[in-house]
Structures are given as structure tokens and as C-alpha cells.
């Protein structure tokens, strides 16, 4: 039997999503599948250009999962446009061994499954960095959010404003625990946003990158020339040296 094409599956999913009789649970699962199919299609288009999983260029500054936040002189790899290269990093980092000086990501790691993809990413980051090269990683700081519980309502309001101002979930954040749920899971019914799969704090980042072989893992002094300024509040960043 021929392998079914992802295009054919996408059409069937679209038809089911349009049907008023499709149950809510199935809608959620199909939406997630449709998103994965989109990533798969972008990734496979790129692997046709780079069948051995390595691009020919050797950029020395690379951003992973930057979305629309571009950094001057960085090569941007993301699963979806806009980016210099569309690549699903859960499949590895498509760069040559020991070639990168700075590998940057923020608010990306919590969007990949743990342990398989997160630990694979940490090992791949170690592989592509040159000796002495630096991995900078920022994530929502779960320790900060938990340390405020039970929180003053004004802090809840500030977090909602800073993190969810553009989203349609304000009516559903009714208590501080709802906000903790967002930070840990982010699995509401908005098809635009990607769920959070794992929560991190400073200790977990040290453990993850030390296990992957990094020599030192230290707090990173936030630099708005590189990082997205809106991420400074409530995030934890580390710099890991290979
Ligand atoms: C919440 S956005 C953060 C964007 C930007 N770093 C910022 O802080 O504004 C997460 C980004 O990670 C990207 N991403 C998620 N999973 C990915 C994967 N498996 N491979 C590559 N990029 C991924 C998403 O496409 C998205 O651009």
C-alpha cells in the first residue's frame, strides 16, 4: 500500500474540523495534528534541499525559535515562517559540528516535549557549538511564578497584562492558579498558540545543560540587543559554555 500523503490527511482533517458534529475532544486533537503536519511539511521541504541534515552555510551566530523576533547578524532557524531556514529542531540542529559561537533561544524550549526533544536539543546544541562557544537559553521562570503563590491580585493582573495582553483568555484567568496553569501548560483552545510541554527554573536549566556536556552554566545578564525586551520580566536565562 502507498504511504498516505500528508496533503490528503490535511484535507480530511480540514473537513472534520468544519463539521459541526465533530466532538470538542477530537477537534483539539485534530488541530494539534494539523499543526504537526504543517511543521512536518516545512521540515521535509528543507530536508530535500539538505538530505544529510546539514546546511552548507556555517553561521557563527544562530537563533532557534525566534518567531518574528529577528536579531541582527543572527541566522534564524524556526519550524514555521518567517525564518532563514524552516527546520523542526526536535529532529536535530542542521549545522556542522563545532561551528557556532553563539546559539540563542528564548521562550522556545518549553514548547518541545521533555525529555526526548529537550534533552536531544541540549546535546545537539553542545555538538554544533565550537569549544568555548556559548548557548544562551531563556524560558518562563516557573520558580518565580510559584514563589508568588498565593499572589496579590495586582500581580495576577500585571502578569496577565505582560504575558497575555494580545490573547483572548482574560475571562478564563480567574485565579492565580489559572495563571500557574497557563505557565505550565498553556493548552487553551486558541489554535494560534503552541502549548507548553515542560516548566523550567534555574536549577533545571543547569541540570539539563550540564548533563549534555556543557562545562559551565551561569545566569545570563539580560541583553535587550539580543533578547526580546518583552521577555525580560518573569523569565530565567542561562549562558552555558561548551
Ligand atoms: C513562543 S514563540 C517565541 C518567539 C520568540 N523567541 C520570542 O521570544 O518572542 C516559540 C517559537 O518557537 C518555535 N518552535 C516551536 N517548536 C519548534 C521546533 N520544534 N523547531 C523549531 N522551532 C520551534 C515556534 O515556531 C515559535 O516561533
Automatic annotation (TrEMBL):
Query: Pfam families of this UniProt entry?
Result: Methyltransf_11 (PF08241)
Q: Which residues form the Methyltransferase type domain?
A: 92-136
User: Is Glycoprotein included in the keywords of this UniProt record?
Assistant: no
Q: Which UniProt keywords apply?
A: Methyltransferase, Transferase
Q: Which GO terms describe its molecular function?
A: methyltransferase activity
Q: Which domain of life is it from?
A: Bacteria
Put simply, this protein is called: Methyltransferase domain-containing protein
Native source organism of the sequence? Streptomyces formicae
